[in-house]
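Let's do one together. I've listed all components of the complex below, 903 residues spread over two lines.
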Amino acid sequence: MAIYNLKINGQSKQVDVDPATPMLWVLREHLNMEGTKYGCGVAQCGACTIHLNGSAVRSCQLPVVAIGNKEITTIEGLSEKGDHPVQKAWLELDVAQCGYCQTGQIMSAAALLKTKPNPSDADIEAAMTGNICRCGTYLRIKDAIKSAAKMK
Amino acid sequence: MEKIKTNYSRRSFLKSSALTGGGLMISFSWLSEFAFAGKTSVLDLPEQWYELTGYIKITPDNVIRIFNPNPEFGQNVMTSLPMIVAEELDADWQKVVIEMGPHDNVKLGPQFTGGSNSVRMYWKPLRDAGAAARNMLMQAAAQTWSVPIEEVTTKAGMLYHEKSGKSGTYGSFASKAADIPIPKGIKLKDAKNFNVVRSSKKNVEGLKIVTGKPLFGSDHIQEGMLIAMIHHPPAFGMKLKSYDASQTLKMPGIKDVFSLKLYEDGFEQGGFDTRTFNDLLVVVGKTTWEVMNARKKLVVQWEPTPELKETRSNFGRKQEVVIPAGLESSTTHYKKMQERAKEQATLLRKDGDPETAFKNAAQVIERTYTAPFLAHNCMEPMTFFAHVKDDSALLIGPHQAPGWIEPTLSKILNLPADKIEIRMARMGGGFGLRAYGHYVAEAALISKKVKAPVKLVYSREDDMTYGIYRPMYTATYRAALDANKNLIAFHVKGGGIPEHPIHANRFPAGTIDNYLAEGWELPSNITIGAFRAPRSNFNAAAEQSFLDEIAEVMGKDPIDFRLELLKRAKENPVGKNNEYDVDRYAGVLKLIKEKSGWNDLANKKYSRGVAAYFCHNSYAAHVVDVVKRDGQPYVERVFSAIDCGIVINPDAATNMVQGAVVDGIGNAFYGGLTHKDGVAEQNNFNRYRMIRMKEAPKKIEVHFVENDIDPTGLGEPPFPPVFGAVANALYKNMGKRFYSQPYSNDFVNKA
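Okay, and this is what the predicted structure of the assembly comes out as:
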């Protein structure tokens, strides 16, 4: 067990956990931040996606010891009132069905738009290939990303 | 306003009560014929089915609270059911608040999500309750204003008396309305006057979902809660023999390790009590990560499970089931199915004289289709929270049928049912898997043992290898043609592990003079369960592929061929109990022919496949357009035609159909859970391939047949025919037929 001072969503949070603990579980069980989801634990489904210094990473495979000073953004910190363009587009196009994968989808999408503000279909498909949606809302996710790109 | 006729009779009992803080509550129960197949008298039903299953509350603040009786797993009933109420109540949709939990000690009877029944089941009761409440409010206003009720009107949660200019909110009259007896036989709105139903409304939970609010069972946390995980045997057909937990107990955060029995010997399982392993090895600790790590340190001896005989009770029907011993492999499964298919099968339906017709046929086409076990792979792995005390229990989590698991919980916890509270969380996917309750029972027993609140967590590996799969199926189809290439006989012999897939009374039964349907079954210790459109999800693939082959031999267009068969069933149907409406079935085929531009020259560049199917009371047809992309077949576009009666929320319904299409393509192309010596060969998404965004079509265009038929199912019906349409399109694209799923196994130079 060790103490880690983490920068999460613009705030300082301190946790006392085993160094190998993936950030997914630090968030969910030590910080009670349930927005980041567990889907597979092996970085295959994307439900656990967060931002590390703005880049999308799978938190299920990101041990807390590797974070250091880097800034973490979770779904809870993506916007103040759920009004990030990606979130707004998601609501406009009524993307979700069960909703479980969607925070991971949104985080991946938001990271993509930061690096590629006008992504092509191929850009979107490549960036989003790591996010599984079991309910099959991929078409709406893609449309929502394009719509969010126009909003910026 | 006119009364809407329903296609089946149901009674909805309404009860009104005054709320303690002021206001009106209308509660209702429902009795549904279809849930009680075989029961002739309504009075035979157990007590609980008369209990109230939902309510509408109107409080002085003019907020309308509607209870959503059905667990939500993405079919968006949290939005569609309240829309139905708001329509008849004439409420301001914006002021309708959905609650997900019992209040005011209203004991809510069975809630169940599955079988694509939510909207269909609640359509009439919700309308009756909404209409009754509106009428009572009008009476209350009429009395207060001393005017005839005929002069009182409503609009969006307000009452008006135009002549005198008086008006008031529903809320202000709610308490008075509670004193008025429930009116009988209130006229419901004519469908052409709907202004809420049939308009698209956004998912009421949308903002919570996109901001990551803790909506799911796996998100439940509370003070003192422990995490439990079960260390399952590595293979089906194995059980716990002994274990050494000494290393595990030394790991940080670990509280306890123990074994317990899920069901006692002789326990009579209900239809949804299916479980794979009965002797459970449990690790309990403070956090999931700590328990996951500690679990790895267990030293366990496993032993083969002997053959078991179990009693199952399916809604009163008792069955003796034999569960074989042994470590089973997929290679053996396929071989055994092939051998069994040659032997005698159970007759399911016979019309005319198929044996003679086949003997005298000029040509016989025979084809065999197979499909593997499928894992549900809900995005949220199995989980449940339980806090069991000496005299009560609280359970929270994702489950499709809380009312069905309650009797089991009552038995195993030895608590009366009214001391067990089950709170339904939003489910991260259901697909039929969450109709089964073993993990709820497991969580409860663990909590009872450790005397603490416990969240039971299944890892993805636990979830994927646990079982309750979609069964393995195979079916051999034969068609007899005469010298003029007329179809004179049709024979389907289907089987599976452990059940056959055949729906003997569905199309094309009724369209062919000589028809034979047979089924057979092979037992297994691999557990199975309902999977989105059970049986249909295989049937449509096999049958719709086969119909295409017949059409090809006959030189007919596949859609025209199906329409000809349906014409025969309309004019001169063969046999009895044909389980589909000919006009509605033909309707979706005609609609898809039109909307897909089936014969348009512009579409010649696509490899097109068509399929149609009837299940769960609705009709669906798809045209699938395949192209080659990087040398591999890719479904670029899909056109869908659906007849599910009145569509409550068009955009959400479109989303559902699109999702079913993607799900169908994914499972048809890639889905399959195989075994080697009892071990599931796929235990996570690196081995079990799921469809990804780039494999989903670029366009899925959905069309609904416009009619005023009472709503029927939509969650399942669009799914099965996708498999058939995909197979037929792949034939056009690759020049060979696909008989065995997953189809990508037969792509050359697989990507």
